[in-house]
Amino acid sequence: MYFDKIYRLQTGVSFKVSTLALQELIASAINGQKFSELESIRSTTDLHDYLSVIICDGAEGLIIRRQRWLDQKIKSALTAGYPVSFHSFCNLFWRNLDEDDPDGDEWHQLMASDQFYLQLTILLNKLRIVERSLLQCKEMIPDLFLGST
Fold first, then answer.
1. Which H or E element spans position 49?
2. Residue pair 42/2 in contact by the 8 Å Cβ criterion
3. Phi, psi of 138 (to 5 degrees)
4. Measuring CA to CA, which residue among 65, 75, 74 is closest to residue 103?
5. DSSP code of 68?
6. Quick one: which of 9, 33, 57, 118 is 20 to 30 A from 18 by CA?
7. Exposure pattern of 5-25 as b/e (b: 16+ CB <10 Å)?
């Protein structure tokens, strides 16, 4: 599974796992804000807080099949095509209930795949590169007030 790419499940639901929040965090860190938040990301599971799921097509069927586990906020976001937090979306799928709904089984297979873990690892490495670059820039900025009275 690749991030920011549309996938289609057997049931016709198409979605993408978005990294937009992470991209915004990186931009904020580059602009001198939220650097400590960037530093707090230490593992691939920490990245889950910055991922979201956007349903591109088939939201109605997914909502019908998962309505027992949907609250109104998530239902509205899914219907409107707005991002839903990765954690909230994962909570829609209960392993022992997925015999009735292939969405959950496919979702679990994608999340457990080596490809998904590889994408998380690549993303974490990119964050480390940004972090190191920002630290080097801070160290290289000369203190303009040094020696002045």
1. none
2. no
3. -60, -40
4. 65
5. G
6. 33
7. eeeebeeebebbbbbeebeeb
10 Å CB burial of residue 62 (0-12, 13-18, 19+) is buried
Per residue in 40-96, pLDDT (tens digit) is 999 999 999 999 999 999 999 999 988 888 899 999 999 999 999 999 999 988 765
Q: Which two tokens stand for residue 144?
A: 């303009």
Structure letter (DSSP) for residue 121:
H
Using DSSP's 3-state secondary structure scheme, residue 84 falls into strand
In angstroms, rounded to a whole number, what is the distance separating the alpha carbons of residues 84 and 35? Answer: 24
**Strand, helix or coil for residue 85:** strand
d(CA 49, CA 87): 7
SS3 assignment, position 51: coil
To 10 degrees, what angle do helices 114-140 and 20-30 make? 10
58 close to 12: Cβ distance less than 8 angstroms: yes
pLDDT value of position 4:
95
